Amino acid sequence: MQDISITEAAEQQQMLRDSAADFVRGRADMKQLRERRGTLPGYDPATVQQMGELGWFAILVPEAHGGLGLALADMAVVLEELGKGLMAEPMVAAVLAARVLEHGTNEALKARLLPGLADASERPCVAWQEDRGGVDAAGSETRARIEGDAVVLTGTKRFVAGAAGASGFIVSAQSDAGLSLYWVDAGASGLSVRHEWRADETPSGVVELAGVRASASDALCAPGAESHAALERAVEEAAVMASAEMLGVMEAALQMALGYMRTRVQFGKPIGSFQALQHKTADLYVQQELCRAVLDDAVRALDGRVPAQERSQLASRCKARASDAGLRVTREVIQLHGAIGFTDEYDAGLYLKRALVLSAWLGNASAHRRRFAQLARGAVAA
Questions:
Q1: Per-residue DSSP letter, 382
Q2: Displacement of CA 300 from its chain's centroid (Å)
Q3: pLDDT (tens digit, 9 = 90+) per residue, 22-36?
Q4: End-to-end CA distance of the chain
């Protein structure tokens, strides 16, 4: 019975991979991607709507709320393929929103928000990081003050992916009872959004909360440990999904370099025949496959029933490895192309810029290595 389940899961993931690969082949357009740089919302709404019709935003949403109720392993294969075509924006932001809602305990809020997220008609996103960025889910200086049946939120959130066109925000804030999570509509009085531009010239939202009033009934779960656990787990899952996208980015970049090395002739031979370059590309392939291995471990842990500390360690190991490998592969791909690799007209640079964004978002490699070490020391002490 278990073997049958494993086989069915593998077949399901292969179908999802094939569907996403076909989608990327038919729609990836680097000219349009360049034209969208520095503009809002930073992605093609029509393409996102098509992704919604294919059910990709519904993958992680429970069936009870209009979703497919599938696993992170299924989402990972879709993101890997979308990453190859630089088309995953804003899918990981939707994953983060879906997971923090799912880990919350407010069933009424789930029933209100998750169906729209599943069919891509609504775009909730999560505003949890502030000036320092990092990976500490509890590190919020935004304040939540209780006034009767309402909550007044004051503070500034940064690095909010998907903020352009968002229908609302899940905001983390400190109250007298500890960390809390509240849903706030995008049109709420006192809420404003501006944008910073990332390395690939996609927008990163800065959400200002100037005395924004939210309903106390819009809390995702109880303040304190429950809210912290919901946010921390969702961030770990989103970081692993960003790693899946990074794997796709580095795969496509490396294949681009290999294709160039087969056709670029120097001294009467394709440059791919030179041993020094063969060694370099073999090393980059090893980096790619090491990333795939730790991604598989992390996805299995997050989809399974492993202890929370082990799950957290594997998530941080995955993001650290993917961030380092993605940057190394895409930077060296630029070098393998020689002078044309540095030009804006050549696509290799687009992959490097996306790798720069993914490596920094949701915690860079250094932050996740520190977190891994802290978790490991905690395990030894226990």
A1: -
A2: 17
A3: 999 988 899 999 999
A4: 37
